[in-house]
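Q: What structure does this chain adopt?
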Amino acid sequence: MLPIKLQLPEHFLDEEVRCDYKVSHEMKKLWAVEIDLLVELDRVCRENGITYWVNGGTMLGAARHRGFIPWDDDIDVMVPRRDYIKLCKIAPNKFSSPYFFQTEYTDPTSFRTHAQLRNSRTTAILSYDFKKRSTFNQGIFIDIFPLDNIPDNPKEFEVMKRTGSRQYKTAWFFHSLYLHKKADSLKTRLGNIVRDCWHPIGKHFYKQLVQKHYKKYEDIIGLYANDKTKECSLLVFNFGSIHRRLWSDFDKTTYLDFEFIKVPVPYKYEDNLTRVFGDWHKFVKGTSFHGGMYFDTERPYTEVYKDFKEGRLDLYKYFK
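A:
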């Protein structure tokens, strides 16, 4: 039985073919858990005056499919930085089990540049996290991205990118040390022995250094949160692939059908989608952004990892 509050429409979990693509019963269960998470996030945002819109493939799915893109496996939302800060502040007291609001501060070493709302009674292990043997909450999730202002002055933006990237890379360096990754410069047996002896002591300091530089990184990319600028973007992708958006697209909010609920999108969502995807009306079949992922909609990630460690479940075959 799915650990969700939401009452699902009859036959929603049935396997079906959409756009010549088979959506399995298991994928439908994953969608149900994610929709339940979105409804819970919507409740908290409405009760606390927080603005958000669905983003990326979720906005595209709402506009083109009136629901999930058939081969998609996640839900993305974006929140203006000012509201994002507010949400992160109140979230620990607004979500209760099985819902868990995850950031670097509520779940240290999860190291995302955005927040995630997870269902702790489920499992969503990404290949990337499995290889790191990460121990943070790995329930099924939806992504919550802060939408940041881009300064109108190009020189100021270049400074933001340069200083922000530096702090991010520094935080990532200490995060890697926390995970006990072997550095290329420590290939000798003696070097690794010294490292292994130091690591239990150093982990506490590594964690503090991660959060110190992570906070500086967040402060830099949120520097213009209270200014009025023409453009905005999801800068948390570390400036690697910036889709510039116009704040004028977000002057109003409208709602589109998404499966059996309605979701908020910018009033000029069609222009917004064009800026991000180009000709978004054209169908391009593919796989999800997450790629390899092991999920279980009815068992918590803690039980799944226990079965793996005790030899009852071979997770390796899911991440080849």
